[in-house]
Structure formats: structure tokens, C-alpha cells
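This section describes the prediction task in plain terms. A model, or a person checking by hand, is given the sequence of a single protein chain and must write out its three-dimensional structure as a string of C-alpha cells. No templates, partner chains or ligands are provided. The sample shown here is typical of the held-out split.
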Amino acid sequence: MIIGDLFSDLAITAGVSQVAGVAVNRNSILFVAHLFGLLPLCLLRSFTFLSYASFLGIGGLLFTAFFMILRLVEGSYAPGGVFFNQLVASGGKNIIVSSFDVMGTKLIKSLILISMLTNSYLCHYNAPKFLRELQDATRKRFDTLTYSSFFGAFLMNAIYMVAGFLTFGGMSCGLILNNYATSDFLATISRGAIGSSILLGYALTFDGFRTSVLEFFKVKEPTQKLKDVIACVFIASVCAGSMILRDLGVVVSFLGALLGSFVIYVFPSMMFRGAKRQLVKSDSSKSLGLDYHVAGGLIGLGTFLGLLGATVVVLKVNTGRVLMFTDRRTGLHKNSILSCHVFSD
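The expected answer:
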């Protein structure tokens, strides 16, 4: 989804609308990127050289934070700003008009944000791998790596969220770069860097996914043919899904609500209860104890929170509407379709 959105805007910036008689749009870009980009990378026998793509990704993230703050401070997207006027004149992205002070903030929508935040914990399945690959691995060094990495990730994401929301308000898209004008040179650089890093680093993430699938089905010595089949099926499925799903915010919040809640609360509690039962079974002198029942309560809590968050996201999507309003600061009457993920109106 991110690749489709970023490279679609890059094609608009470059003025490319057709190649060899084929229209250049989001779906055609996704098809080409998956077939000629992601699939060959996922079929590689070694991903060693792709590890350097992480440096491109870090550079792109830092640059994105810089330019978002710059555009917020200079007011380029505020009423009267150069890019604001361009977007209003073109009419192609009228969702740029901020919705501040139009309808206020609704507390129920905070559940969507919480659902997104739970994605922060979905990386912890990689902790054993990071510990194993850490040079001179000790508890202290691993703690330092963990704390510094999570703090850095928190700081960067806080900048994106705050700067993006203060710039575009409730019209902020799930992928915030979608809000910026295709004529914005700094946004173009950011799209190129982020898109390239995702394209090159995709195979590294896929390798972890494939390893987990093989371990789940207890395949100890998979053949190369089996690995290639998994890659082809996975890429085809992801390509089809990304063509259908367009709102990154909805996907992240929905999966965050379900997977996040189950990975954080449900699965660990189930594993703990199972281990505790085995311990009591092997030693009759021991009892299940209070923590066993607390873990049972966490299973129920995690299930409830997951379903509640997912329900809120689904209801939000199904109640999409056209908002008619006059921007108080510009006097412009807007008929803005709220096609982007909205935190507050």
C-alpha cells in the first residue's frame, strides 16, 4: 500500500501518465513493483547485501521528520501558504483543508489511535533473533539496544504524528505523505527515500515471516522450491490485497486492534497458563496460584479490547460521509469526502 501511494505521487511529479500504452496509476505501479521488484528480491538466496538498505531507511525517516517540521513552521500548507493555494487551485486533493474547529474531537476515536499504538509491540517476536545476532551479547548491552531503539522509534513517530496533525488536522491521511503536494520538492525526496528503503528492505521482513511459517508447520529442512513457492504465493496475495485496500490507517488500526491485543494479552497468558498446568501436573505439591487466574482475566480483557477496537474501526469505515463546511479561516466552502483515516473532525 505504501509503495503504491508513494510511487503514484512520484509518477505525478515526474509527469508520467502512460508507459508503452499502459496507464501509470496506483494498481499498475503495484503490479510492476511486486512482479519485477519485490518478487525477485524475495527469491534471493542471500539477503546480506540488502542489510545496507536500512541506512537508506533511517536517512529517509530523519529527512521526513525534518521537512514535516519545516513545512509546519513556515506555514506552507496553512491557508494562504504556497502549497495550500496550489492544492485548492488544482482541486485534486481538497482533503488538504484542515478540519480544525469544525466539529470538535470525539473521545471514541481515541480507541482507533490506541489500536494503532499496539503495533509497537508486534516486533517483540524478533527479540531472540536480535539477542542472538548482537555482538558481545550481554543483558546490559541488550537492554541498552532495546531502550535506545524504542525511544528513538517513539521520538520519530511522535514527530510525524504531531507535525502531521498540526498541519492537516482531521484530514490527515493514514500515510501522512499523501497529504503533501506532488509539487513539493522536499516531499518528493522523502517519498523517494522511504519508497526505495521499503522496496529494498521488504525481503528482510519477508524472510522472518517465511521462517515463522515454516516453524509453525514444523518444517525443519525446507527445500528451496518450497521457499520459492511461499514467496510467490505471499507476493501475489499481498499485491492483490494492496490493490483492494487503499487506506493505510484503517489497515494498521484494524490489525493493531486484533493482532496487538492478542499478541500482548492473549497469547502470552495462554502460554503461561499452559506452562503452569504442566508444572502442577509434574509436581502435585504445587498449586495453580493467583497468577494463573490473573492470566485468565488478561485473556478475557485482551479479547474484549481487540474486538472493541476492531469494531470501532469497522464502524468508522462504514459510516464514511461527505462533510460540507466552510473553513473559518479561508471562507472557502468545501465539499470534502473524508476518504482518509480521521482521528478528529
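For orientation: The CA atoms of residues 53 and 108 lie 39 Å apart.
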